[in-house]
Design a protein that fits this description.
This protein has 17 helices and 10 strands. The chain is an alpha/beta fold. The longest helix is centred in the last third of the chain and has 16 residues. Bound molecules: spermidine. The site of spermidine has 11 residues, from strand 9.
């Protein structure tokens, strides 16, 4: 069967409620550090479904697997702009909303915003959302750059004079090409979603100019390293991951998340079911389960990411709801941008430029 006919077949069976009971198994592929300690255990206790849970830390890695197909995964969590082009490639099955009564808990405005990636939210539900900014160790950055270090600006990491000084305490960059280009383009005053070759070239040159001062490129190792004082700055850090580092840092070590004043990316991570998922019914059960107000609040309280579940908000700890880095005030929201979908050729150009930045060539 082709991918499209498998999709049509599974969807019509689910819609008719005609699926013979699935084996009690569910295969989830989610971002690392993105679920509460007891979410899976509670789901299994409630449903009898055993879960295999794998993790990744890159949209690019997830996409490569999805486009190859037959991943065996029942649920994945791509970010909105990646989801959008994966939908166009036929990667996901439409959701059967009759199986998702907890959709009523979701924040209508946020779901409407996410529908720019997935019309009518037909294939996906917001899992968590956040921004891409800077994470830093307050004392160490002050030690090398002084009390007026530009911690509210991308110049902290893109101005070579600053990057050079941060080299010894440890400057790390995310290994997330699309987002790092958004940040560099923003710093240069270009449209963050530009794919003009001349502008991409300038952003490449900018990041290459600080490459000698970067300790590593990695998108999840920084949580432990910031907490342990092994690095002092992460460029392109994700909201909750920096807060997790702050939460687990030793006494007296202050880690702060900052949304640069020039602007930063706001993103939605979307939970969706691959068209060839072996257990689509169980996948629907899990999506409905995580949309329970208490379950979603437990996840936010553990991972420090904002969710889009309105009913859960009264159950989210005040130390989280009161954090401007997680729930930015309107004047900061006004500086955020979202990612537009890239064509395959545009992505290739960015990935090639990123390879140059990383290799220092
Ligand atoms: N540790 C969880 C990280 C989730 C990050 N989502 C990616 C957003 C990309 N824009």
């Amino acid at each position: 069967m082709t991918k499209t006919s498998i999709l049509a077949f599974s969807v019509s069976l689910i819609a008719l409620g005609a699926v013979a009971e699935e084996e009690k198994v569910l295969n989830i592929y989610n971002w690392s550090d993105y679920i509460a300690e007891d979410t899976i255990e509670k789901f299994t206790a409630a449903t009898g479904i055993e879960v295999t849970y794998d993790v990744y830390d890159s949209n690019e890695v997830l996409e490569a697997k999805l486009l190859t197909g037959s991943t065996g995964y029942d649920l994945v969590v791509p970010t909105g702009d990646f989801l959008e082009r994966q939908i166009a490639a036929g990667v996901y099955m439409p959701l059967n909303k009759d199986m998702l009564p907890n959709l009523a808990n979701m924040d209508e405005k946020l779901m409407a915003a996410a529908s720019s990636h997935d019309s009518d939210n037909a294939h996906s539900v917001i899992y968590m959302w956040g921004t891409t900014g800077l994470g830093y160790n307050v004392a160490k950055v002050e030690e090398v750059l002084g009390a007026d270090a530009p911690t509210d600006s991308w110049s902290l990491v893109f101005d070579p004079a600053n990057a050079e000084k941060l080299k010894d305490c440890g400057l790390a960059f995310m290994d997330a090409p699309t987002e790092m280009f958004h940040a560099a383009l923003t710093y240069l005053g270009f449209d963050p979603n530009s794919h003009e070759p001349a502008e991409i070239e300038k952003a490449t040159a900018l990041m290459s100019s600080v490459q000698p001062y970067i300790r590593y490129f990695h998108s999840s190792q920084y949580i432990d390293d910031l907490a342990a004082g092994e690095i002092c700055v992460i460029a392109g850090g994700w909201t909750g991951d920096v807060y997790q580092a702050a939460d687990s840092a030793a006494d007296g070590v202050e880690i702060v998340y900052s949304i640069p004043k020039e602007g930063a990316l706001q993103w939605f991570d979307m939970i969706a079911i691959p068209a060839d998922a072996p257990h689509p019914e169980n996948a629907h059960k899990f999506i409905n389960f995580v949309m329970d107000a208490q379950i979603t609040a437990d996840i936010t309280n553990y991972v420090w990411y904002a969710n889009a579940n309105e009913a859960s908000m009264e159950l989210v700890d005040e130390e989280i709801t009161s954090e401007a880095g997680i729930f930015p005030p309107q004047e900061v929201k006004d500086t955020l941008y979202t990612a537009t979908v890239k064509t395959a050729a545009e992505s290739r150009m960015i990935n090639e430029a990123w390879a140059k930045v990383k290799s220092g060539s």
